Amino acid sequence: MRKSPLGLASASQALCRSLLENKPLVPSDTLFRDDIFETTCQKIEDKNEARIIQDISRLIVPSAESHATFGAKHLDILIESVNEGWNNSIPLTSTRPQPDYSVGFRRDAFTDDKFAKLSPCIGNFLAGDQSLFMATYYMYIPFLTCEVRCGAAAFDIADQQNAHSMTLAVRGIVELFRAVKREDEVNRKILAFSVSHNHESVRTYGHYPVISGKNIEYHRHPIQNYLFADSENKWIAYRFTKNVYDKWMPAHFDNICSATDQLPPDLNFDAPPLSKATGLSQDLGNLAQPDANYASMPDERGSQSSNSEQQAVIPDTSFREPKRRKGEGPEGP
């Protein structure tokens, strides 16, 4: 997956600068404390992913729910998952996403009226129905993933896993706005973020669609690529992610709610899988039909590719107009 030749919209370029420049407070008594930071890095440099996640991942990508618990009430609408398969998302390939960490919106974030608008597109999620708008059965419209891998080649795999997950996330937003004929508002705009890291380095991306009629391409924009083992850089990703939660997420959620309010009743979405000619499908395994059973699908721990230079293209992800009631003509009763 690569940058689009068209690039980001100017508003998203300004957004990236703002998220990098603002410097919120960081926690003081952690393994990143100045006097023990070097020791922390030494202890994890030859360790596996589980140890890296245990020691430092939440110091690179902070926990949204923990910040809410400590008083950031605007984050109460968020929910996170840890190493959990996205069983409720309509798949693009036969490999399901299973991010090390992801953040999206909880059910209670939506009023009953808004949820009723989305319900026809969600189905019976507890029974395993799949949707463009769900990741797990309790997470709606994810917008952030983090993957942790060890080694240079594995680092590229983390990038590809994030690209897969965030293509699903961005696809849902695009289809929501297409359904209300507002797709121009999200064209070339960052709609999700991802972070890949190992014991010493971090890469951060913004994920965005390029829409041309019925053709949709999904791209990523590199935001950061640096060594956090250099003590001067250790809080860059933490501050950036905190700004995503505090500065970007509220407006993103407002836009989602605005589009949801305009959905016609009983709208049903269709989401065909990627064609075999597209990059992401080549990278992530065989194609799966939208009604594929995720229980039999491999997760991303068992099927990976190191090719990180492909964009995903979906020729036409469409939606069905609501069915007319008896006696209604093209313009209604």
TrEMBL record:
Pfam families: DUF7924. Coiled coil: none annotated. Residues 268-333 are annotated as: Disordered. Residues 37-259 form the DUF7924 domain. Signal peptide: none annotated. It comes from the Eukaryota. InterPro entries: DUF7924. PANTHER family: PTHR42470:SF2, VAST DOMAIN-CONTAINING PROTEIN (PTHR42470). This is DUF7924 domain-containing protein. The lineage of its organism: Eukaryota, Fungi, Dikarya, Ascomycota, Pezizomycotina.
